Amino acid sequence: MGTAHSGPSADKLSVVFAVHVIEGGEQGFLEMYDRIRKSVARTPGHIIDRLGEPADGSRQWVITSEWETPEHFFAWQQSEEHRSLVAPLRKWVDSTQSLRFRVVKETVRVKS
Prior knowledge:
112 residues; alpha+beta; Alpha-Beta Plaits; two-stranded antiparallel ribbon; 38% strand; disordered N terminus; monooxygenase; Dimeric_a/b-barrel; oxidoreductase
C-alpha cells in the first residue's frame, strides 16, 4: 500500500508523448531519440526523460518527461533548437499525441 501526498510536485509538469513508429523505422527513431535526449538533458527545468518500448508489438512508443514548471517545458518546446531537432523525427513516425499535466497526487510504495 502506498502513501498519497501532494506538495512541491504539484508545480511540476509531466508530459507523455506517444509516437507510432513506422514499420522498419525503429532504428532511425532510436537514433533521433538519442539526439533529442542529449539536448533536453541540458535544458533548464528538465528533470527526467524516459523512453518506453511497446511490449505488445504495436510500434506505439512512449516518451515521458518531467519538468520543474510548465514554463520550462513550453520554453524548450517553442525553441528553435527543439524544432530543428524534432523535424527529422517525422521521417520515422506516422502519428503522435502529446499529453501535458500537473501532478496533483502521487502514491509511493511503502517499504515494509
